[in-house]
UniProtKB/TrEMBL annotation:
Residues annotated as the enzyme's active site: 63
Residues given in the record as Ca(2+) 2 binding sites: 191, 237, 240, 245
Species lineage: Eukaryota, Viridiplantae, Streptophyta, Embryophyta, Tracheophyta
Catalytic activity: 2 a phenolic donor + H2O2 = 2 a phenolic radical donor + 2 H2O
Species this protein is from: Triticum aestivum (Wheat)
Keyword annotations from UniProtKB, A to Z: Calcium, Disulfide bond, Glycoprotein, Heme, Hydrogen peroxide, Iron, Metal-binding, Oxidoreductase, Peroxidase, Pyrrolidone carboxylic acid, Secreted, Signal
Main location: secreted
Gene Ontology molecular function, alphabetical: heme binding; lactoperoxidase activity; metal ion binding; peroxidase activity
Name by which UniProt lists this protein: Peroxidase
GO cellular component: extracellular region; plant-type cell wall
Function recorded in the entry: Removal of H(2)O(2), oxidation of toxic reductants, biosynthesis and degradation of lignin, suberization, auxin catabolism, response to environmental stresses such as wounding, pathogen attack and oxidative stress.
UniProt GO BP: hydrogen peroxide catabolic process; response to oxidative stress
Enzyme class at the top of the EC tree: oxidoreductase
Domain Plant heme peroxidase family profile: 22-317
Amino acid sequence: MASRTWHFLLALSLLSSAAYGQLSPSFYATSCPLLELTVRATMIAALLAERRMGASLLRLHFHDCFVQGCDGSILLDDVGSFVGEKTAFPNVNSVRGYEVIDRIKATVELVCPGVVSCADIVALAARDGTFLLGGPSWAVPLGRRDSTTASLAEANADLPGPTLNLDQLIRAFDKKQLTPRDLTALSGAHTIGFSQCQFFRDHIYNGTNIDPAFAALRRQTCPAAAPAGDANLAPFDAQTQLVFDNAYYRNLVAQRGLLHSDQELFNGGSQDALVRQYGSNPALFAADFVTAMIKMGNIAPLTGASGQIRRNCRVVNS
Ligand code: HEM
Ligand SMILES: *[C@@H]1O[C@H](CO)[C@@H](O)[C@H](O)[C@H]1NC(C)=O
């Protein structure tokens, strides 16, 4: 009796102390053994067509997880009276890759219909995008289910913007139980991809912590007077723009952060030392990035009987 109780308690504590909550990398091992191969193959095709898509899908996962948790809520279209997150300021005309998620979902539905959530597909696509652009790989904890709701208000409130200062960034991540170290590691995602001029204009014209030569270079394709050139793109990392490396941090040390929020991580504050470390130690960055991605991927997932497995990632099952 006592021993049975003890075993029960041990099992309970093992379950609840598992590093990734209720998610597990082997969640679909029997129900969809070809899942990861299917996602990978579709991602390779997508990146062959457009290499930037690896960056775009990494960002999509971030924007999913910071709003209601990693539940695929960002994928829901506005239809009829339903208002989703796609028109929120941080997402509209900015988040990309919805069609690639549709393609992966369609392919996965062919292999194992009705089994795999859109939220898990987004998490796998983010991992594959990172890896296929030369970054680290990791086993993605799986078993998320899809939301039946979305929140435009939470997307506007909780997704950090490029004008935030370090305190505000730390608070935005703390709200999702992510540490300042997670913030600095995850921001390394800005080693790949691009930003529109409208998000860094103020920084390159009015910023005080910016290399003058870098500011002059970026002004060439980002005119001062909005809305001219608002959507013009500049790479976050000019030298290796679609290679997932640690150059982002060396750029910050050289005052060549593209966004004001990027440069806030190296501006005489609490993250300076870590930025220098990541810039000189790629293995440390890779390890911390993986740890932080797994933490971010574990924000408030729907599991068990909560939510649903959407048939179409854009609409709630009827
Ligand atoms: C720390 C706060 C963050 C802020 C303020 C921020 C802001 C931005 C902005 C303004 C853009 C450009 C969007 C556009 O031009 O349409 C961008 C792009 C991007 N962000 Fe972030 N971001 C943050 C954190 C993250 C995190 C945590 C990740 C992923 C782990 C991430 C991944 C990316 C990627 C990969 C791109 C390039 C996307 C592409 O080229 O399509 N960002 N971010
Ligand atoms: C620079 O800052 C001033 C004062 O806040 C503002 O009026 C102006 O629009 C800013 N310039 C750019 C290019 O963002």
